[in-house]
Description:
The structure is a single chain. The chain has a single domain, classed as SPOUT methyltransferase, trefoil knot domain (Alpha/beta knot). The chain is about 35% helix and about 15% strand. It contains 5 helices and 6 strands, in the order βαβαβαββαβα. The chain has helices at about 10-25, 40-50, 65-70, 110-115, 135-150; strands at about 5, 30, 55-60, 75-80, 100, 120. Helix 1 (about 10-25) packs parallel to helix 2 and helix 1 (about 10-25) packs parallel to helix 5. The protein is globular, with a radius of gyration of 14 Å. The chain starts with a strand and ends in a 5-residue tail after the last helix.
Amino acid sequence: MRNVVLFQPEIPPNTGNIGRLCHATGTRLHLIEPFGFSLDDKSVRRAGLDYWSELEVATWPDLESCLASRRGSGGRVWYLTTKATRPYWDVALGSEDWLVFGPETRGLPDSILSRAGDQAVTIPQRAGRSLNLATAVGIVLYEAVRQEALGEGIR
């Protein structure tokens, strides 16, 4: 099963919308603490509507604990960042892969990206402002779905 990891998400409607994307694609959602909101926040519930209770979601105290849970799954970890130069479409996304996204206002910290190596990928875009987090997750997640449907992903 594909996995989306939100590292310290800050904006409840983004998390709710990403939950909808995960539900629609059969993807597990992982949320890394601390959050900028409560999971009981009405904005999360409203954005997720009735999907939230059906969503496979896990919360973790830190990224290391989250990624340790993947051992044996065979999935690779991809770190999405505006600081990378390799576009997301240049990688074969597998059905067990983990897509890690940073918080809305600052992205993934350098302490994480310094370990990412060639597994740091980007959504090419103009310099300056970056995409909304839910939009970014949707772009990359549906590329993974597309690759799986066409048998392009590596496994």
